[in-house]
Design goal:
By secondary structure, this protein is α/β, with parallel strands linked by helices. It is globular and about 65 Å long. The strands form four sheets. It has a four-stranded mixed sheet, with helices on one face. It has a four-stranded mixed sheet with strand order 5-6-8-7, covered by helices on one side. The protein has nine helices and 16 strands. It has two domains: 263 residues, Alpha-beta prism (UDP-n-acetylglucosamine1-carboxyvinyl-transferase, Chain), CATH 3.65.10; 89 residues, 2-Layer Sandwich (Dihydrodipicolinate Reductase, domain 2).
C-alpha cells in the first residue's frame, strides 16, 4: 500500500508488543519470504530487503529474484550489494552466485569501519551505497567507504543526485554524509570511483517536504568523456534554446584521463527545501539532441506540478522516513518503483505508508509512526541491543 494496510500493521504490532517482553534469546523471529518478481520486479526489491534486514536484525529469503528480467537472477552489481551488506552486517548468506534467483540472508551486528566495494563492471556503485547506508546512519561509529563501478548510469541514481539532492536531506535528519567523486564511470567502461564518509546519529529526525518554495539557483552542465567536442556543444545548444537560462548557468565538464566514452546532461534547480537533479544519458546511437531533451522533459514535468519531491527522490526517501518514525512529502505520481518499495518496507517494519492523490498532478505520501514499541526517536530508538 499502501492504503488499506493499517489493520494488518496494528495486528503485527500486537504480536511484537508481546514479544519484546521476553528475553532476546527467547524471541524466535520467522524468516521473511520475499517474492523478488513482485511489483517492478527489479534489483530494488533486493537492495531494500538487504538494507532493512541489517537495520531490523531480521533474516529473509528471497525467491524469483528478477525473474521477469531479460537476464534474470543476480548480476554483478547485485552480488556486490549482497557482499557489501554481508561485510557491513557480519551476515551469513546462501545463494550469492551469478544468475541465482534464490538468496538467504541472516544478518549479524552492523559494524562501522573502512570499506571498499568494487562492482568491477559499469554496474551502479551508487546502488551499492544505497544498500548499506541505512544501517550505517545509526551504527555505533563513523564509517568511510570507497565505491567503484558506474557512477552515471541510465537506470540508477547518478552521483550528482546522491550528492546534491538526497544526501542534504539525510543530513537534515541528523547524520553527516560527505561524498567525493574521484572519477566518473559510464557504461560500458565503468571504472568510476567515489568516497563516502558517514557520521551516524542514534536516531533520525522527522522530515516533512510539502512546499517547494522559491528557486534559489539553477545550473545546467554537460559531462563529456572521450567524445568529440561537437556532442557536448550540440547538447548545450538545445539546453540554451529550450531553457533560456542566464549564460553563466551553463557549463561543459570534460573528464580528465577518461577510461572510456560517456556523456550525461545534468540539470540542477535549487529551491528552498530541496535541490532537484534531472539527467539525460548518452548512449551509442542516441542523438545528442535527444539526450538533452530527455533531461529537459523531466525537469519540466517536475516544475509544472510545483511539488518539492520528484519521482526518483520519492523512492529514496521512504526508508529514512520510516526509520525516523515518520515524515511526509508531496510528489508527482508515484512510480511502480516507489509503491513496490513501500510494500517491501512494510514486510520488515510494520508502519503505515499512505499514498493520497490531491489533484491531477500532485500526490502526498505520509509515512506514519512505526507500529512498534519504539517510543521517542522513531524506529531506530528501539533497535536491537548489541550482540
Amino acid at each position: 500500500m499502501v492504503r488499506g494496510r493499517t489493520n494488518q500493521a496494528w495486528s503485527a504490532n500486537k504480536g511484537l508488543t508481546r514479544l519484546v517482553k521476553l528475553p532476546r534469546a527467547a524471541i524466535i523471529r520467522p524468516v521473511i519470504t520475499i517474492d523478488g518478481s513482485q511489483g517492478e520486479g527489479g534489483g530494488q526489491i533486493l537492495r531494500t530487503s538487504l538494507a532493512l534486514s541489517l537495520v531490523t536484525d531480521q533474516s529473509f529469503r528471497m525467491e524469483r529474484i528478477r525473474a521477469r528480467r531479460q537476464k534474470p537472477g543476480l548480476l554483478k552489481q547485485h552480488l556486490t550489494a549482497v557482499e557489501a551488506a554481508k561485510t557491513v552486517g557480519c551476515a551469513e548468506v546462501t545463494g550469492a552466485a551469478l544468475g541465482s534467483q534464490d538468496l538467504e540472508f541472516k544478518p549479524g551486528p552492523v559494524t562501522p569501519g573502512n570499506y571498499r566495494f568494487a562492482v568491477r563492471t559499469a554496474g551502479s556503485a551508487t546502488l551499492v551505497l544505497q544498500t548499506v547506508l541505512p544501517a550505517l546512519l545509526s551504527s555505533p561509529g563513523p564509517s568511510t567507504l570507497t565505491l567503484e563501478g558506474g557512477t552515471h548510469n541510465p537506470m540508477a541514481p547518478p552521483f550528482d543526485f546522491l550528492a546534491k539532492s538526497f544526501m542534504p536531506l539525510i543530513q537534515r535528519m541528523g547524520p553527516v554524509v560527505e561524498l567525493q567523486l574521484k572519477r566518473p564511470g559510464f557504461y560500458p567502461a565503468g571504472g568510476g570511483q567515489f568516497h563516502a564518509r558517514v557520521q551516524p546519529v542514534p536516531n533520525l529526525s522527522r522530515l516533512d517536504l510539502l512546499e517547494r518554495g522559491a528557486i534559489r539557483s539553477r545550473r545546467a552542465k554537460v559531462i563529456s568523456s572521450k567524445l568529440p567536442e561537437h556532442v557536448a556543444e550540440r547538447e548545450l545548444a538545445v539546453l540554451r534554446e529550450k531553457l533560456k537560462w542566464k549564460p553563466d548557468e551553463y557549463a561543459i565538464e570534460t573528464v580528465p584521463y577518461p577510461l572510456g566514452p560517456g556523456n550525461a546532461v545534468v540539470l540542477e534547480v535549487e529551491t528552498e527545501p530541496v535541490i532537484g537533479i534531472f539527467t539525460g544519458f548518452g548512449e551509442r546511437g542516441r542523438p545528442a539532441e535527444e539526450v538533452a531533451r530527455s533531461a529537459i522533459e523531466a525537469l519540466i514535468a517536475w516544475m509544472e506540478t510545483n511539488v518539492p519531491v520528484d519521482e526518483h527522490l520519492a523512492d529514496q526517501l521512504l526508508i529514512p522516513m520510516v526509520l525516523a518514525g515518520g515524515g511526509s512529502f508531496r510528489t508527482t505520481k508515484p512510480s511502480l518503483h516507489t509503491t513496490t518499495n513501500a510494500e517491501v518496507i512494510q514486510r520488515f517494519i510494520p508502519t503505515s505508508i499512505l499514498v493520497e492523490q490531491e489533484n491531477q498532478l500532485v500526490w502526498r505520501i505520509t509515512v506514519g509512526q512505526a507500529f512498534y514499541p519504539a517510543g521517542e526517536g522513531g524506529f531506530l530508538a528501539a533497535r536491537r541491543p548489541p550482540r
